[in-house]
Amino acid sequence: MNTTASFAQPLDMGSVRLRNRFVSAPMERNYCELDGTMTDRYIAYLERRAAGGAALVFTEASYVRADGKGRIRQMGVDVDERIPGIARMAEAVHAHGALVGVELNHGGRTAQGAVSGFVPVAPTPIPCAVVGGEMPEQLDSDDIEHLVECFGEAAARCAEAGVDVISLHGGHGYLIHQFLSPAYNHRDDEWAEPTLFVNRVIDAVRTMAPGITLGLRFSAFEAVDGGLDAETTRERIDAIDTHRLDFLDVSAGNYESGQWIIQPGEWQRGLLAPYAEPYARDFDIPVGVAGRISSPETAEQIIASGRADFVSMARTLHADPDFPNRALDGGRYRPCIACNYCIDSLAAGPIPCSVNPWVGRELEQPSKPAGTAVRVAVVGGGPAGTAAARELVLAGHSVDLYDERGSLGGDFALASRLHEYPEYHRIVDWYRDELADLNVTCHTGTRVDAATLAPLDFDAIVLATGGRGPAIDLPGAGTRRIRDVREFLASGDPAPESITIFGADREAAAVADDLLQHGTRVVMIGPQETIAHDVGRRGKIVLLPRLAASENLTTYLSSVVTHIEADRVVISTNGQQRTVPAPGELLVSHGVEPRAGLLTELRRLAPRLGVHSVGDASGDGGSLHAALVTAADVAVRITAAADSRVGADA
């Protein structure tokens, strides 16, 4: 146990003591009922984070009044009917030695009627285009007073339910932040004073829940024109009644600068620590910080240097709830790759995790080994294959994994070399190390067919051979070299002077971006109306402006190639044909088709527990998350089939 690390030390915060410095930060998850009531699914998720060693487990930004609801399944603390569910959650988290926190919030201008059922309200009627742009109504003084009461009443409900810690969300562009910001508070009455509202809320919470530990989360800056910069934010915090608070928690950004709320993987780990440091130095209450804290080394550097007293970790503990325990015991943890798939899924419903197939499915995750151990062959060593192998071995089965490439990772390992994805290699490395420690027999550089596997008499076979780009047959194709983007990446060829890409999807955008970093002139021709249409907003929030600013990128969108020549192509744009320059090799990025050629052949072997395809080979890929989920579910099905077969034979 690493008891000497700074993050291992307990921390007194108000009336409570944290067992270490790891805080599972407030993170919207959409796991509640539609009316905001706690669910068994959400309780299992939070309980798992408590069991993983976090000292304080927060739920999420929870609305104190119904018109402040911003997500379809966001947690509510607006009425007494929410109390029993929160109490059940608190009991489950406390059972693992962790404290429970709830973040009180109102969306203000970021809430939209399509979600809440109400017209949004705000200090000043300024719409938020990022979430739909509905014009909010300006709050009058009576309604502001009512909102203050709602915060206090919500805190009282939490206290009654056994919650230990309340955090007021004063950042990220929500209501409290809107009052603080000169960009969104243009009032000329008493509420023009930027800290009046938050101070009134602090007073209400202290009155209604007097014994509870209370803190404030805020953005150190907004990074928008006319908004709060670091200096002005400090002036605001100095004017807040911090003597009535027990901690501060530093974040950054608002909805118009979302890259600062949820930072991309390209950005430095722990990048907000310098902004937290002055608060940790000057205030006599604990100060936490968020922002790309995805390794024990980063957490230790921040805390040991005195830049913060605790670290608020959202995506990191979303990816691996055991991160705190692994940091404490020096073990291996499943890394967050900062792809932002989780946050980009919020509008659709409950959020998943790209690298952890059991996130949000904790109640379904196997908790004990199989009753009957069997032998399984996994063909393919990409994400789906390595995930299936790991899940099967954890269930107690014996696994042989085959891959024709010389190393594991498949096409995802190729993507991990690209400029946009500097963290992707971490999950490839993690699976490789996991399989080595679990004694999975890996046959890399080995191409197999049915004849190879037939004499080995496996009980089940998992086909994880991935996908390939569809064939392109166009007039003039013989005039130049044409390859799928994956073939190009696998070749390891150096960046050329110029290149043309037919396609504007996720893969095309990432390859174009990488080549542009090497000085390549890129022509992109795509049938899509926008670049990277299949990527969520947060996932491309840094990429798209960079592509738009590049002088070496020429794009023809809503266009298809109809004829190929040596150094130009004929394209059709909305039915209008024209010839455009298209230098260099032609790369094609039109998605993937399953590489399932072995499927029929393997099925003829009729293994006792069947042949199962996963990931792109099954047509159920398309994302890392989908690949890992299909792999985990197939492992469960094989285990169930083995147990039921033995039971039937008994």
UniProtKB/TrEMBL annotation:
Cofactor(s) needed by this chain = [4Fe-4S] cluster; FMN
What SUPFAM superfamilies does this protein's entry cite?
FAD/NAD(P)-binding domain, FMN-linked oxidoreductases
Q: What are the UniProt keywords, alphabetically?
A: Flavoprotein, FMN, Iron, Iron-sulfur, Metal-binding, Oxidoreductase
Q: Where is the FAD/NAD(P)-binding domain?
A: 375-599
Residues forming the NADH:flavin oxidoreductase/NADH oxidase N-terminal domain are 9-328
Q: Which family does it belong to?
A: In the N-terminal section; belongs to the NADH:flavin oxidoreductase/NADH oxidase family.
Q: Which organism is it from?
A: Rhodococcus aetherivorans
Q: Does the keyword Nucleus apply?
A: no
Please state what the protein is called: Probable flavin oxidoreductase
